[in-house]
Amino acid sequence: MSENLQQRLFAELDQLVLIDPHTHINPHRPASETLADILGYHYYTELSHSAGLSRALIEAPNLAPKEKVGRLVEALGHIDNTAQLSWLLEAASKLFGIDLERLDASNWEQLYDAAQAKFSAPNWEQEVLQLSKLEAVFLTNDFDDPLAGFDTQRYVPCLRTDELVFHFSKATVRQRLMQCAGVELRTLEDVGQAITQRFEHFTAHGVRACAISLPPFFKPTCVSQVAAQQAFERVLREGEAASADDKQTLGYWVFWQLAKNCVTFSLPFDLMIGVNRAVYPGGVFQGQDLYDSRVSLIQYAELFNAFPEVTFPISVLASVTNQELVSYAWIFPNVVCNGHWWYSNTPSFISRDLHARLEAVPRNKIIGYYSDMYKLEFALPKFAMFKRCLANVLASHFVIGMGWSESRALELGRQVLRGNVESIFYR
Amino acid sequence: MSENLQQRLFAELDQLVLIDPHTHINPHRPASETLADILGYHYYTELSHSAGLSRALIEAPNLAPKEKVGRLVEALGHIDNTAQLSWLLEAASKLFGIDLERLDASNWEQLYDAAQAKFSAPNWEQEVLQLSKLEAVFLTNDFDDPLAGFDTQRYVPCLRTDELVFHFSKATVRQRLMQCAGVELRTLEDVGQAITQRFEHFTAHGVRACAISLPPFFKPTCVSQVAAQQAFERVLREGEAASADDKQTLGYWVFWQLAKNCVTFSLPFDLMIGVNRAVYPGGVFQGQDLYDSRVSLIQYAELFNAFPEVTFPISVLASVTNQELVSYAWIFPNVVCNGHWWYSNTPSFISRDLHARLEAVPRNKIIGYYSDMYKLEFALPKFAMFKRCLANVLASHFVIGMGWSESRALELGRQVLRGNVESIFYR
Amino acid sequence: MSENLQQRLFAELDQLVLIDPHTHINPHRPASETLADILGYHYYTELSHSAGLSRALIEAPNLAPKEKVGRLVEALGHIDNTAQLSWLLEAASKLFGIDLERLDASNWEQLYDAAQAKFSAPNWEQEVLQLSKLEAVFLTNDFDDPLAGFDTQRYVPCLRTDELVFHFSKATVRQRLMQCAGVELRTLEDVGQAITQRFEHFTAHGVRACAISLPPFFKPTCVSQVAAQQAFERVLREGEAASADDKQTLGYWVFWQLAKNCVTFSLPFDLMIGVNRAVYPGGVFQGQDLYDSRVSLIQYAELFNAFPEVTFPISVLASVTNQELVSYAWIFPNVVCNGHWWYSNTPSFISRDLHARLEAVPRNKIIGYYSDMYKLEFALPKFAMFKRCLANVLASHFVIGMGWSESRALELGRQVLRGNVESIFYR
């Protein structure tokens, strides 16, 4: 009975038209062009590599898409237990019409060709959006993105700011900022103006969020103007050779400016907390980052206190930080739970973390899910995975445990899946 | 079948008469006087505030109780998913006879009036104790509480010692200690005597525990008499302006004295580990504290080793510390698991933490639950929440998983709910 | 239905013949000789001690086995809720033919005698291996173990290296190394040679793994030869009085040599991460170690990067580190999940940790379980506990959740239980 209940709830939730509030979609090429775009997703390359496939084989230069898929398929038998591979099989079934129990040497070409027929159809982008019930998709835009040549209602700009905070000592980053903002960077004031100019540019193109990913040791603080000025001068002189202290001081100052601009421009500031970059430099492309789970939201207490007007949708990388996120969202009006990120984006962690959020955080402060996808074809299976977890928590905790009606549970589910995306990012 | 089993176990556990081993009840006004005492519980003010209600609205001076409730009700729609709000609805049903699916503008006055009729009855205090099956309620008493004017069998004194350890540099704290203990505080020996005098006073009034809440960075150690003496002298001279080091040295010394007195007076020492105070100074009353979950019980290893005669009932604030608590209680004879505290007091954390305790800690070392309540009306719904979690673990792990009979599982449940409170606090 | 499904899966998994990839079996006396060998297992002595039994009573010198069992039985009523005690009752039933609901004063002698009859039979060792479906059992051998006088196919040598890394400053350790390796230890090169000689000796006797347990603060790094040489000279001069820094430098150097030898000799290097030794010096024998759960696998990033040819089967002590293990095994080809260690070896932690592994780590990189036993009689009940958890995850996540056939789920279960032990340790 509980399984039927869960399926009924899933079926209802699955009717909802969605806004995906965080992706890495390229709005100029949003859909896949060959199956290599799908199997080349870092989840498959890194898991296959981890299972024993040589990096040289899958990252060979000029590898033809079909050849690349063929090589990756060799390793899939080792990862067919993973939730990540199940996304691919669900996409194959729901988007390409190919039902497979396993993907292997015997059937991958069949899938390859069926998918290619879809990709080659003139309106595949529309079709996959429709099949996936996607109304809008948030992007991850470099600060110097011109944001031109696409429909910003459908592909919604978000200002990604990692480079400004963590790589300001690189001449190329400063050069790009000067160029796009049309401001020389001689003083700290110039930097402030350039950043503000970027917010103006993004605002003019319908930006819905400022966003950044942060390492576990990040502990932002309000740096004095004098300290920031001195650090800025040394970073300007010494570039990447500047001291770690100077880079950090300047980074904290830039971060604080971003938050100030979020006030001015009424933007939520997405914080994705906890990733260490390039922990495994020998890993495949985008498969080198890991983390130190010893991080605390108390590192952000000064920020949350300093900017009560800014909403901070927070993603945490490791499930051990989820209870802190629940507690901070329960206390701070400007802290909001945001999705299930990366290494926490598998069913057991989602179910556990979601349960803790839904039982203790105000319902208007929980953004259920974002796909984090690079290609449109992943929204459907990733959201489906989340909706199954959501249906499970709604069934077991709310309907069975709390005696709620199914319609009341679905109301909560819809708010978490869609309503809060609107109320938080579209006000 | 499993749901029926769980309900049968709950129904049996629900018959038990309880002793609540930690509350903040004021024995002179134990029951609520208006519904504002219920809705004014920090869980509702902080969640409503977090959901968007202005602090000024609910903390306005001279706000009439009914007006306050009316304002809070506005925000309850945003928190009706929370376990915390479910306590209120369960209290409304079981104590005030009002069954509501939701509490909103349409029905709150009905509840207000029904509750008022109860509160105004001459014997409401007795009635709520009886309805809640409460035999005794442990208090949280300031060190200078006269402990007079109430039945200490029913309202059981516990010596709360946060101020002595963390605020000894405040002149008012020292003044109060001198006054109540009748001892001048000129030397460290004087402080020791004053503390011991307080234990004598509390013992004379039936104290059952010494208790303290501790920040995550607390790492108590046995400070030398010389170091403590020097710190004491500087704290005496400089007051709150004394260095953090001196305050800490003196705090550790005072803490050690408390433990010594627990030996002398055969008292358990409740440690509530992990809270950072005033992380969100802009929060509502009692809704400003949060935590850094990076804490370890190894910080208390020296203490546990130094005082084998003292039982330490331990509460941990975050569920990530629960496994350490399980392991330390499994190894140290004087470490006992105590309840599910504050941010870990919601069903998913309770169930998970309780399961881990019940499968690995000796059964005589698990104190199931305390309500932590400020008003008597919360014991019933909070204990009911716990008993549902307990019934769930007993059903799934012990009856179904281990093949235990229901009566054997209930025996364990009763020990955890009541038996261990007696054996640990009343020996 | 789900319970029946789980039982069917368990029954199938229970047919499998096993290799136990980590134990503390003494190959010269692998089976118990009296019930005191069983009840003397540290799990029972430490839990009984924690529950109130005096250490003096159970560690009295010259205590007769039967007397010791009688004393321990006194305390078992306090720990009959624990998973640990359930191992004993399952062994009693499956190995000794005695079915008991509880073990107490009324029936322990019956069990004692029945067990004794088994132990005294000439072929008990064979019988227990057969009843437990054990084909081979990995050992934990001191570096100077002669590895003679037993069948190394059945009792498989593993080189345990804690002493070399952590106690090299002890004259006795150096003495033993010189003696067994036949090398004077005058220079660092001598130490390197002695270590390599030990790998040669172990390899000649069929070693299958190098292994070590590590404290939470261990953060191995490649120490320069100069720094190591200086530290070595001072440690040689000052012995245990050498500075903590010198001991650590030398320890890291030795650790790095071990990893290098694992390359040379193609051995997996088992890392058991997170234990603090002697946290409770007043505890019973082997019941004094605990942990600080604030540890991260990022401490091993340099190691994993430096030795891509070495497979590192990793055990983590606390469940809070499990997600890091999952993520690191998902990214690093040479990181493998290994079993459920010690304080995480109870059903709720196993089920949770295993679920997270099975849904996100390549299936060829998960070593399901090892018993960690000191006496053969514990393999059966400990593996049975694990197999129940495994059947549970296979049933709920794979068969019900993912729609897998039972046979496909069993294939995964068998790979995790047995297949990966072969492919990782026997290549």
Could you describe the 3D structure shown?
- Three copies of one chain form a homotrimer.
- By secondary structure, the first copy, chain A, is of the alpha/beta class.
- Chain A has two domains: 31-122, uronate isomerase, domain 2, chain A, CATH 1.10.2020; 129-425, Metal-dependent hydrolases (TIM Barrel).
- Chain A is 50% helix and 8% strand.
- The first copy, chain A, contains 18 helices and nine strands.
- Chain A has a six-stranded parallel beta sheet with strand order 4-5-6-7-8-9. A three-stranded parallel beta sheet of chain A has the order 1-2-3.
- In chain A, strand 7, helix 15 and strand 8 form a beta-alpha-beta unit.
- In chain A, helix 16 (347-358) crosses helix 17 (379-401).
- The mean pLDDT of chain A is 97.
- The interface between B and C is large, with 38 and 39 residues.
Brief write-up:
The structure is a homotrimer of 427-residue chains. Chain A is α/β, with parallel strands linked by helices. In chain A, 50% of the residues lie in helices and 8% in strands.
